Known about the structure:
Blueprint: H1 10-21, H2 26-33, H3 37-45, H4 47-59, H5 75-90, H6 97-110, H7 121-131, H8 144-162, E1 170-179, E2 205-213, E3 219-226, E4 243-246, H9 254-276, E5 282-287, H10 295-299, E6 305-310
Parallel strand pairs: 1-5, 3-4, 5-6
Antiparallel strand pairs: 1-2, 2-3
Helix pairs in contact: 1-4, 2-3, 5-6
Domain HTH CENPB-type: 65-137
Subcellular location: Nucleus
Pfam family, one: HTH_Tnp_Tc5
Amino acid sequence: MKRKRVVHTLKDKREIIETLRKGVPGRSSAEKYGVGASTICDIKKKSENILGFSKDLAEAERNLERKVMKKAPNEEVDQAVYVWFMQKCAMGQPISGPLLCEKALHFNARLGGNSSFRASTGWLHKFKRRHGIPEIETHGEKMPADESSASTFNDELKRYLDQGYEEEFIYNADETGLQRKVPLKRSLASRTEDATTGCKLSKERITVMICANSSGTHRIPLLLNRKSKKPKSFKHAKNLPAVYSSQKKGWMNSEIFANSFKNTFIPDVKKFQNLIGKTGKVLLLIDNAPSHPSAACLNRIDETVEVRFLPH
């Protein structure tokens, strides 16, 4: 009689590996988990991969009940959505399925993901299964917690301003994506033509970070981030009116942000203070995005500059 195929979770496989390493015969695990000796041998051969993958999941507080080690098609977007979801859970905010899909589309656009990504119900089902999220549907369209966190932040900001931050030394920075050479989605066509010739969207993406103070009297040089380290268009350029960096997909990440903060933002603010003949504490407000380093990390760089995250 043919044995029924049994697929065990990563948690079970990890327990089997630990049992084998203690010297317990493989047949004992085979009997306990209802599998053949060949399955136990296969798990033993893949033990390093299984333990490594399980460790990554455990450190990220993800689901060890998964049965396969297959990653998400777009790991960066998947990770960004999951981090956002966990942040909201930590704040006690209810998250609905449609809102999670909407956020997935947002991160996909911000990170320059696959243009065909739709964040369908199928994607949502797989996302919940990957991360062990049993049910996230809630009733209602608004999340009162968002209003509450914004109100709390306003109170905190007022207290910060009372500590001596001048309007000229309060800055805000944010990133946006720029798609170059994108054709018009709609164009004019004569009545004799059924449709105009289709064009594929350009994948030439640039991330731009903009930063200025609240009085509008000081603007930090733009940060441009593209895929290419040495664009041909910059071949003869000597003095760029912006700071240039590169990343293989043209995205912002914590390393680029921290480098810009340390080597561009802080020196330029100091230069501005010298120019106007004033000194004082500096406050930088930024989004709490996965691509940004922690506030604690940034605040260790210069004691006169403090970074605060804006509420979601």
